[in-house]
């Protein structure tokens, strides 16, 4: 919350260091590196993907880190996804599978 | 018997050997494994105590106050904000002259929030009337906990056993677990002169008037001021009891001998670094290198902080050329509290060394050995100033 | 600074048991006459899966400096994926030893000037009957093979003590199997068939 109404210009000299954390990607570092299991969306089962229009979005809603997009289809930002499995747990279509991260990395290499 | 375990387990072992009877504690990083270990020991029948889970540190100290008033050996442990949460009860326990023992696993205080080590928590409570002892390694932790109960029950003043959060609480090193029978000889059962007893009802620590008054037996009951002066006087007398307890411990277990100050290469030193806790040990390696470079320097680890052993400090330091005080706390708006206390202890001496102050390690900021070298070389150099403002070491912005 | 301290830095993930592994080696060292042993884990908020490191210092004399190891003599990596994420060899002195739990051989790693030892602890530990992913005891076998501080029998004894009453046999088996299959890449004579 920024305030441009500060009528006391002297106060700008004080409290130069305070502990604030604002929302945005990466404040906790590259948390995607913590993953042991990676969520993979099966687009043949995913409801918005199958219908090709906005629908469901339970994964976007329940993701505690906000790394899933509310798009058709939903996408997962693997830079920050920690692999908590909540999206897989909540998906009503069982469209999300948790895959061993090591296997995914080896495949990518 | 030697084991390799964490500082928290060393503390728990000390509490177990001391036969604590009531333990009321609330978990807080980095103390948690200590309370967990104690509850495991009680659950396994290896410690015959009542473990009372409470919903806050304030209640933890309240339960200890009640238990101690009822004549049982009471223990708790905490850190940082937990210590502060029980602040009013710390004053209460001391004013009520209850021999409670508490481990304080030193940690910085919020805001901003931190879980890492510094000494601000203990320093912020130095005027509560509690005895404060600082430990440098795991052996000292277990030994000091045992001594703390005997000390507290002798002078009837509660005792805080402080050790560095994470640096000591969560690191592992070998230490000896004293033999149980020997501990029982050193520390007999808690048998206070008086305790809460329904057969002899009394009202403890009631409103106490500014003035003295006659009690129901016609004797003169002390006023608030007498009670306060008595606590202070007993705190001063406790300095000798700390030394005596250490001497008796050394006789029984073969360890000790430095109840106030643990010196390293100080005898022929021109300069002495002073620190409390694990930092005083860390400085030893630095001292050895500086000695090789030709600097006559030593390090003194201060073990007893309250009551402040001013005579021992003056004796150890007044003849030196320079004293360099490293501390993990600051009295905002002034200087390091240990620095101020040391200067005051030297005030009346015929010769006063130059005393410098370095503040470091706050909120767990890594203490780099290079920074220790730089600080000491600056303060012990030929053109080192006689006095200087406290310097913060290890800042990165 | 002191030159009588062997500094071993362990890289693992929260929950992987790096601390237990270091503690086992610490106990083995202490019972072998190394009076100075200090083991310090990463300090702070913990999370399963997060990279953590543990510093283990071993000496015949008491150790006073508890600070994290900046210049290790030995680095042990419990999870080869960490090699991609963390500079595991940071500060490792030239000629120092790095031990990695990986199916790949030492030659597959680009650690110039360092002695590299590898073992597929994950597979070997699994074959020894341990639950999937339990590698902290197996990797001790690699340390026995590639390092020159403590021998396998001493370390096996320490594993046994640590798991007393909790079926230590599988953990010891994992360590011994790893010992046998550790590849050390330095000179041809040291490489095991």
CATH T-level fold name of the largest domain in chain B: Rossmann fold
Number of helices in the DSSP assignment of chain B? 13
Protein structure class of chain B: alpha/beta
* CATH classification class of chain C: Alpha Beta
Strand order of the largest sheet of chain C: 2-3-1-4-5-6-7
Structural class of chain C: alpha/beta
Helix-strand pattern of chain C, N to C?
EHEEEHEEHHHHE
Strand content of chain B: 15-25%
Distance between the termini of chain C: 40 Å
CATH architecture of the largest domain in chain B: 3-Layer(aba) Sandwich
Mean pLDDT reading of chain C: 91
The residue fraction in helices of chain C comes out at: 25-40%
Q: Enumerate how many helices of chain C there are, as a single number.
A: 6
Main pleated sheet of chain B: 7 strands, mixed
Shape-level CATH architecture of chain C? 3-Layer(aba) Sandwich
Strand order of the largest sheet of chain B: 3-2-4-5-7-6-14
Q: Could you tell me the radius of gyration of chain C in angstroms?
A: 15 Å
Tell me which oligomeric state these chains represent.
heterotrimer
- Please state the average pLDDT score of chain B: 96
Q: What is the β-strand count of chain C?
A: 7
Overview of the molecule:
Chain A has 109 residues and is α+β, with helices and mostly antiparallel strands. Chain A is built from 4 helices and 2 strands. Chain B folds into 2 domains: 2-186, Thiamin diphosphate (ThDP)-binding fold, Pyr/PP domains (Rossmann fold); 261-392, Rossmann fold (3-Layer(aba) Sandwich). In chain B, the strands form 4 sheets. Chain B has a 7-stranded mixed β-sheet with strand order 3-2-4-5-7-6-14, with helices on both faces. Chain B has a 6-stranded mixed β-sheet with strand order 11-13-12-15-16-17, sandwiched between helices. Chain B has a two-stranded antiparallel sheet with strand order 1-8. In chain B, helix 1 packs across helix 2. The termini of chain B are far apart. Chain C is of the alpha/beta class. Chain C has one domain: 3-Layer(aba) Sandwich (Pyruvate-ferredoxin Oxidoreductase, domain 3). Chain C is built from 6 helices and 7 strands; from the N terminus they run βαβββαββααααβ. Chain C has helices at 18-31, 82-85, 121-127, 138-146, 152-162, 169-181, and strands at 6-13, 36-41, 51-59, 74-77, 97-101, 115-119, 183-185. Chain C has a 7-stranded mixed β-sheet with strand order 2-3-1-4-5-6-7. In chain C, helix 1 (18-31) crosses helix 5 (152-162), helix 4 (138-146) packs parallel to helix 6 (169-181) and helix 5 packs antiparallel against helix 6. The longest helix of chain C is centred in the N-terminal third of the chain and has 14 residues, at 18-31. The termini of chain C are far apart. Classes of the chains: A alpha+beta (109), B alpha/beta (397), C alpha/beta (193).
């Amino acid at each position: 919350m920024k305030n441009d109404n500060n009528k006391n210009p002297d106060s700008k000299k004080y409290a130069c260091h305070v502990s604030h954390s604002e929302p945005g990607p990466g404040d906790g570092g590259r948390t995607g590196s913590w993953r042991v299991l990676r969520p993979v969306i099966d687009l043949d089962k995913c409801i918005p993907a199958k219908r090709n229009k906005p629908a469901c979005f339970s994964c976007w809603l329940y993701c505690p880190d906000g790394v899933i997009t509310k798009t058709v289809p939903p996408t997962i930002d693997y830079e920050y996804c920690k692999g908590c499995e909540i999206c897989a747990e909540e998906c009503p279509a069982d469209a999300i599978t948790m895959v061993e991260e090591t296997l995914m990395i080896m495949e990518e290499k | 018997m030697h084991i390799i375990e964490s500082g928290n387990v060393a503390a728990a072992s000390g509490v177990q050997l001391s036969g604590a009877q009531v333990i009321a504690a609330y978990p807080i990083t980095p103390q948690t494994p200590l309370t967990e270990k104690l509850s495991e020991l009680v659950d396994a029948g290896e410690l015959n105590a009542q473990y009372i889970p409470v919903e806050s540190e304030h209640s933890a100290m309240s339960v200890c106050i009640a238990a101690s008033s009822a004549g049982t050996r009471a223990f708790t442990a905490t850190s940082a904000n937990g210590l502060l949460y029980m602040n009013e009860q710390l004053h209460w326990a001391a004013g009520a002259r209850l021999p409670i023992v508490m481990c304080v696993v030193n940690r910085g205080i919020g805001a901003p929030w931190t879980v890492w080590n510094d000494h601000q928590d203990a320093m912020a409570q130095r005027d509560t009337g509690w005895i404060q002892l600082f430990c440098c390694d795991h052996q000292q932790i277990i030994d000091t906990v045992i001594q703390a109960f005997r000390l507290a029950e002798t002078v009837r003043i509660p005792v805080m056993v402080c050790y560095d959060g994470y640096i000591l609480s969560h690191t592992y090193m070998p230490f000896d677990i004293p033999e149980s029978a020997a501990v029982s000889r050193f520390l007999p059962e808690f048998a206070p002169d008086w305790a809460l007893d329904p057969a002899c009802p009394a009202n403890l620590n009631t409103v106490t008037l500014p003035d003295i008054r006659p009690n129901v037996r016609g004797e003169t009951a002390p006023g608030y001021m007498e009670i306060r002066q008595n606590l202070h006087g007993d705190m001063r007398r406790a300095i000798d009891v700390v030394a005596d307890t250490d001497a008796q411990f050394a006789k029984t277990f073969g360890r000790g001998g430095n109840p106030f100050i643990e010196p390293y290469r100080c005898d022929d030193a021109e300069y002495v670094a002073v620190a409390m806790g694990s930092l005083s040990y860390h400085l030893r390696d630095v001292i050895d290198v500086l000695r090789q470079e030709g600097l006559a320097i030593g390090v003194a680890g201060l073990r007893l902080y309250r009551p402040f052993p001013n005579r021992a400090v003056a004796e150890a330091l007044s003849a030196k050329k320079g004293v360099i005080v490293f501390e993990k706390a600051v009295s905002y708006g002034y200087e390091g509290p240990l620095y101020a206390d040391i200067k005051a202890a030297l005030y009346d001496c015929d010769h006063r060394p130059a005393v410098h102050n370095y503040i470091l390690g706050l909120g767990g900021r890594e203490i780099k050995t290079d920074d220790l070298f730089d600080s000491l070389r600056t303060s012990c150099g030929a053109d080192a100033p006689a006095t200087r403002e406290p310097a913060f070491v290890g800042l990165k912005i | 600074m002191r030159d009588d301290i062997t500094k071993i830095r362990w890289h693992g993930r929260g929950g992987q048991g790096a601390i237990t592994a270091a503690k086992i080696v610490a106990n083995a060292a202490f019972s072998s006459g190394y009076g100075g042993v200090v083991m310090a884990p990463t300090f702070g908020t913990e999370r399963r899966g997060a990279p953590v490191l543990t510093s283990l210092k071993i000496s015949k004399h008491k150790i006073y400096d508890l600070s994290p190891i900046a210049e290790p003599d030995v680095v042990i990596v419990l999870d080869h994926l960490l090699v991609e994420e963390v500079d595991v060899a940071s500060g490792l002195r030239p000629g120092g030893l790095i031990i990695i739990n990986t199916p790949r051989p030492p030659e597959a790693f680009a650690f110039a000037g360092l002695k590299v030892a590898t073992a597929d602890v994950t597979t070997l530990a699994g074959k020894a009957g341990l639950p999937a992913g339990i590698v902290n005891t197996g990797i001790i076998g690699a340390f026995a093979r590639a390092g020159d501080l403590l021998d396998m029998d001493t370390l096996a004894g320490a594993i046994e003590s640590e798991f007393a009453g909790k079926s230590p046999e599988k953990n010891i088996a994992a360590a011994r199997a790893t010992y046998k299959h550790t590849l050390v890449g330095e000179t041809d004579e040291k490489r095991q068939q």
